[in-house]
């Protein structure tokens, strides 16, 4: 009878160990291939994102225009910016208005910042004739204080970790961002 109890305890311990190992393996796979957390570092995406916001990065899918993405920057640091231009696009700013392939686009995420600026445009005029194949043109929402494609060039799709739209920390600021 004592041997039966020991065998039963060993089986139960093994079952718990297997369950724990499977849970750890699944968590590692999900984090490596599907989702990963990131902390916003700096003010280049203000007012949309704030320094210290913690977000979830979705590693699945392909980034689209106006998505917020995280990528490996040339400085060996991860940046978080908004996709403005896709491969083949001509990107232009004139009089604080975004034109892509000659068509004007609204940027509602910039409205608050534009209302607070009184000494010139939020975004200086520039033209990028074409976004190279396999690359994207990115900009921070804090246009006057963002190191983005205007400075570091277009970003290879291979350098993009994923897109993000969920702030999960601090708790009082949990939200979806666009």
- What CATH architecture of the largest domain do you see? Ribbon
Number of domains: 2
Q: Helix tally?
A: 3
Assembly state of the chains shown: single chain
What proportion of the residues form beta strands (DSSP E)? 25-35%
Question: For the record, what CATH class of the largest domain applies?
Answer: Mainly Beta
Could you say what the CATH topology of the largest domain is called?
Umud Fragment, subunit A
The main sheet comes to:
8 strands, antiparallel
Radius of gyration, in Å, reads 22 Å
How widely separated are the two ends? 64 Å
Low-confidence stretches are none
Query: What structural class is derived from the secondary structure elements?
Result: alpha+beta
Give, in order, the helices and strands.
HEEEEEEEHEEHEEE
Query: Portion of residues in helices?
Result: 10-25%
Instruction: Identify the overall geometry.
Output: elongated
Which homologous superfamily in CATH is the superfamily of the largest domain? Umud Fragment, subunit A
Total count of strands: 12
Average pLDDT reading: 87
